[in-house]
Amino acid sequence: xxxxxxxxxxxxxxxAAGQAPVYALKEVSQxxxxxxxxxxxxPSGCGKTTLxxxxxxxxxxxxxxxxxxxxxxxxxxxxxxxIAQVFQFPVVYDTMTVFDNLAFPLRNRGMPEPRVRERVVExxxxxxxxxRLKQRAAGLTADGKQKISLGRGLVRxxxxxxxxxxxxxxxxxxxxxxxxxxxxxxxQQIGVTMIYVTHxxxxxxxxxxxxxxxxxxxxxxxxxxxxxxxxxxxxxVGYFIGSPGMNILPCRLEQGQPVFxxxxxxxxxxxxxxxxxxxxxxxxxxxxxxxxxxxxxxIQKVEDLGRYQVVTVKHEAEQIKMLVGEDQAIPSSSPHIxxxxxxxxxYRDDWAVxxxxx
Length: 358
Ligand code: ADP
Ligand code: MG
Description:
By secondary structure, the chain is an alpha+beta fold. The chain contains 8 helices and 23 strands. The chain has helices at residues 48-56, 98-107, 113-126, 142-154, 173-190, 201-207, 225-230, 235-240, and strands spanning 4-12, 23-32, 37-41, 63-68, 71-72, 83-86, 161-165, 193-198, 210-215, 218-223, 247-250, 252-254, 257-260, 263-264, 279-283, 288-291, 295-296, 298-304, 308-315, 318-325, 336-339, 345-348, 351-353. A 6-stranded mixed β-sheet has the order 6-7-8-3-9-10, sandwiched between helices. Strands 2-1-4-5 form a 4-stranded antiparallel β-sheet, with helices on one face. Helix 2 (98-107) packs across helix 3 (113-126) and helix 2 (98-107) packs parallel to helix 4. The two termini are 34 Å apart. Magnesium ion is lined by residues 48-49, 165.
């Protein structure tokens, strides 16, 4: 097991003829602690797989270095890194039995057969594959094959880390939930560093203790699910985490307080009035409410989600989403809204400013 460290890692894939290189990873400097459950979360194309392949050694970064427990591994081949990696789509040997597929990584490393058997039986039980061990992998559904892939990732006990690259993409929704809980349970049992890549915030927030949010080739914030919800350091984190995401609205400043469309607001996070750049406020839909005397709005849409209603309102050109309890009335004439000052954040050029921020 290992602590994983990235030092100024950047990566550009070879550019098309005559074009300048584009950095798929812009600059990553991070320390991920030994035994942690991490999720790498971000939209498609933001560089998650690139970073994962740099950890396992499938890819050598164009710049920077990677260390396991303080030891440089940047140029070590995959076989010497002792990393298990589970890919998005099943990697199984169709002609082998389920048993032999699971045993493969162990036999490959010369583990004595009785121990192989013990370990395979244990992992198969965890993944509900016990009654399939004698079947050939070819006969299994996509779900079943992906469970074998997961098993092959989990079976070795001598790994520094286990990497999962969107491993539940091909799994049906019900089983997905089950497998995710199982992975979390397993992490608690075996305590090996696990890095779980996903574009789905629910998957990331339920699996991980620490979520690494990536955007456009860079890590924008690392934090617990609660940190990311309460203190988004970047507008992208505010917008990407939460359902619906944070409202991000243009503002200017007057005496350290934000002014949104000529409405002077109050924020418990006052900032320097001289700030230049693109200024915005961030307010989560949870902290917007109707009131008698605030910002006048027009109601555009009400979606009933059971315990909550998502209400979309508009003030001048700006749309604002709010979460309203099921038993709360929506005003029928001249609605006004207010923002909770304690949860109003100010962003400059997409980065949070004010107390606790740079
Ligand atoms: P993610 O896993 O977050 O979807 P990737 O790491 O796969 O993102 O890709 C990051 C960026 O690098 C994307 O713009 C993608 O098109 C580009 N990219 C990925 N793999 C290659 C490759 N082999 N050659 C060239 N560009 C690539
Ligand atoms: Mg990917």
